[in-house]
Write the C-alpha coordinates for this entry.
Amino acid sequence: MSDDLSTLEAWAGALLAQLQPGQRRIITRRIAQDLRRSQAQRIASQQAPDGAPYAARKQRKNLRGKKGRIKRQKAAMFEKIRTQKNLKIEQDENQLSVGFFGRAARIARVHQEGLTDKVAKKGPEYRYPARPLLGFSATDQALIRDSMLRHFANF
Protein backbone atom coordinates (compact mmCIF):
# COMPACT_ATOMS: atom_id res chain seq x y z
CA MET A 1 0.00 0.00 0.00
CA SER A 2 2.73 2.49 0.92
CA ASP A 3 4.60 1.50 -2.25
CA ASP A 4 1.52 2.46 -4.28
CA LEU A 5 1.33 5.77 -2.42
CA SER A 6 4.97 6.57 -3.12
CA THR A 7 4.42 5.80 -6.81
CA LEU A 8 1.36 8.07 -6.84
CA GLU A 9 3.29 10.77 -4.98
CA ALA A 10 6.14 10.67 -7.49
CA TRP A 11 3.75 10.83 -10.45
CA ALA A 12 1.61 13.61 -8.97
CA GLY A 13 4.63 15.55 -7.68
CA ALA A 14 6.17 15.72 -11.14
CA LEU A 15 2.93 17.05 -12.63
CA LEU A 16 2.29 19.53 -9.81
CA ALA A 17 5.84 20.89 -10.04
CA GLN A 18 5.06 22.13 -13.56
CA LEU A 19 2.12 24.26 -12.38
CA GLN A 20 2.08 27.84 -11.17
CA PRO A 21 1.42 28.24 -7.40
CA GLY A 22 -2.14 29.48 -7.98
CA GLN A 23 -3.02 26.55 -10.22
CA ARG A 24 -1.37 24.12 -7.80
CA ARG A 25 -3.46 25.52 -4.94
CA ILE A 26 -6.67 25.11 -6.99
CA ILE A 27 -6.00 21.51 -7.98
CA THR A 28 -4.86 20.44 -4.49
CA ARG A 29 -7.98 22.06 -3.01
CA ARG A 30 -10.21 20.09 -5.38
CA ILE A 31 -8.37 16.87 -4.59
CA ALA A 32 -8.69 17.54 -0.86
CA GLN A 33 -12.44 18.18 -1.20
CA ASP A 34 -12.87 14.95 -3.15
CA LEU A 35 -10.86 13.03 -0.55
CA ARG A 36 -12.85 14.52 2.32
CA ARG A 37 -16.12 13.56 0.62
CA SER A 38 -14.82 10.05 -0.04
CA GLN A 39 -13.63 9.58 3.56
CA ALA A 40 -16.94 10.86 4.96
CA GLN A 41 -18.93 8.47 2.76
CA ARG A 42 -16.74 5.55 3.81
CA ILE A 43 -17.12 6.46 7.50
CA ALA A 44 -20.90 6.69 7.02
CA SER A 45 -20.96 3.21 5.49
CA GLN A 46 -18.87 2.04 8.50
CA GLN A 47 -16.05 0.50 6.52
CA ALA A 48 -12.29 0.53 7.05
CA PRO A 49 -10.07 1.67 4.15
CA ASP A 50 -9.44 -1.96 3.23
CA GLY A 51 -13.21 -2.56 2.93
CA ALA A 52 -13.66 -4.50 6.18
CA PRO A 53 -16.69 -3.51 8.27
CA TYR A 54 -16.18 -1.78 11.62
CA ALA A 55 -16.42 -3.82 14.79
CA ALA A 56 -20.00 -3.76 16.08
CA ARG A 57 -20.95 -1.52 18.96
CA LYS A 58 -21.27 -3.00 22.40
CA GLN A 59 -24.98 -3.51 23.09
CA ARG A 60 -26.43 -2.23 26.33
CA LYS A 61 -28.87 -4.29 28.31
CA ASN A 62 -32.48 -3.53 27.53
CA LEU A 63 -33.68 -2.80 31.05
CA ARG A 64 -36.91 -0.92 30.38
CA GLY A 65 -37.62 -1.55 26.74
CA LYS A 66 -37.61 0.99 23.96
CA LYS A 67 -39.91 3.95 24.37
CA GLY A 68 -40.18 7.14 22.41
CA ARG A 69 -38.96 8.37 19.08
CA ILE A 70 -35.34 8.92 20.13
CA LYS A 71 -34.78 5.34 21.21
CA ARG A 72 -36.46 3.99 18.07
CA GLN A 73 -34.02 5.79 15.81
CA LYS A 74 -30.85 3.91 15.14
CA ALA A 75 -27.94 6.23 15.84
CA ALA A 76 -25.22 6.00 13.22
CA MET A 77 -21.70 5.65 14.47
CA PHE A 78 -19.50 8.73 13.96
CA GLU A 79 -22.42 10.78 12.66
CA LYS A 80 -21.11 14.13 13.88
CA ILE A 81 -17.41 13.54 13.51
CA ARG A 82 -17.62 13.08 9.74
CA THR A 83 -19.13 16.54 9.14
CA GLN A 84 -17.17 19.36 7.51
CA LYS A 85 -16.88 21.04 10.89
CA ASN A 86 -14.72 18.20 12.20
CA LEU A 87 -13.24 16.56 9.09
CA LYS A 88 -11.16 19.50 7.88
CA ILE A 89 -8.77 20.38 5.10
CA GLU A 90 -5.44 22.08 5.79
CA GLN A 91 -3.41 23.24 2.84
CA ASP A 92 -0.28 25.20 2.01
CA GLU A 93 1.77 25.56 -1.18
CA ASN A 94 3.45 22.16 -0.97
CA GLN A 95 1.02 19.88 0.82
CA LEU A 96 -2.54 19.24 1.81
CA SER A 97 -4.00 17.25 4.65
CA VAL A 98 -7.48 15.96 5.32
CA GLY A 99 -8.08 14.99 8.89
CA PHE A 100 -9.40 15.72 12.32
CA PHE A 101 -8.05 18.56 14.43
CA GLY A 102 -8.63 19.64 18.02
CA ARG A 103 -11.00 17.66 20.25
CA ALA A 104 -12.30 15.65 17.31
CA ALA A 105 -8.73 14.53 16.61
CA ARG A 106 -8.44 12.98 20.08
CA ILE A 107 -11.70 11.10 19.66
CA ALA A 108 -10.76 9.97 16.16
CA ARG A 109 -7.33 8.80 17.33
CA VAL A 110 -8.86 6.65 20.07
CA HIS A 111 -11.08 4.91 17.52
CA GLN A 112 -8.46 4.81 14.74
CA GLU A 113 -5.90 3.02 16.90
CA GLY A 114 -8.22 1.19 19.31
CA LEU A 115 -7.04 2.89 22.50
CA THR A 116 -8.47 3.05 26.02
CA ASP A 117 -10.50 6.14 26.97
CA LYS A 118 -13.13 7.23 29.46
CA VAL A 119 -16.70 6.74 28.30
CA ALA A 120 -17.85 9.95 29.97
CA LYS A 121 -16.05 12.61 31.98
CA LYS A 122 -16.40 10.65 35.21
CA GLY A 123 -17.34 7.35 33.63
CA PRO A 124 -15.49 4.07 33.41
CA GLU A 125 -12.61 3.44 31.03
CA TYR A 126 -13.28 1.32 27.97
CA ARG A 127 -10.90 -0.15 25.41
CA TYR A 128 -12.42 0.75 22.06
CA PRO A 129 -11.91 -1.67 19.16
CA ALA A 130 -9.85 -0.30 16.28
CA ARG A 131 -12.12 1.35 13.73
CA PRO A 132 -9.88 3.06 11.16
CA LEU A 133 -11.58 6.32 10.19
CA LEU A 134 -8.98 7.67 7.80
CA GLY A 135 -6.76 5.93 5.30
CA PHE A 136 -6.10 5.48 1.62
CA SER A 137 -7.94 2.85 -0.32
CA ALA A 138 -7.46 1.90 -3.95
CA THR A 139 -10.51 4.00 -4.86
CA ASP A 140 -8.96 7.03 -3.13
CA GLN A 141 -5.80 6.64 -5.17
CA ALA A 142 -7.87 6.36 -8.35
CA LEU A 143 -9.82 9.44 -7.25
CA ILE A 144 -6.61 11.47 -6.92
CA ARG A 145 -5.39 10.28 -10.32
CA ASP A 146 -8.72 11.06 -11.99
CA SER A 147 -8.96 14.51 -10.40
CA MET A 148 -5.51 15.44 -11.65
CA LEU A 149 -6.15 14.09 -15.14
CA ARG A 150 -9.46 15.96 -15.31
CA HIS A 151 -7.71 19.19 -14.34
CA PHE A 152 -4.96 18.74 -16.91
CA ALA A 153 -7.51 17.87 -19.60
CA ASN A 154 -9.24 21.22 -18.97
CA PHE A 155 -5.91 23.03 -18.75
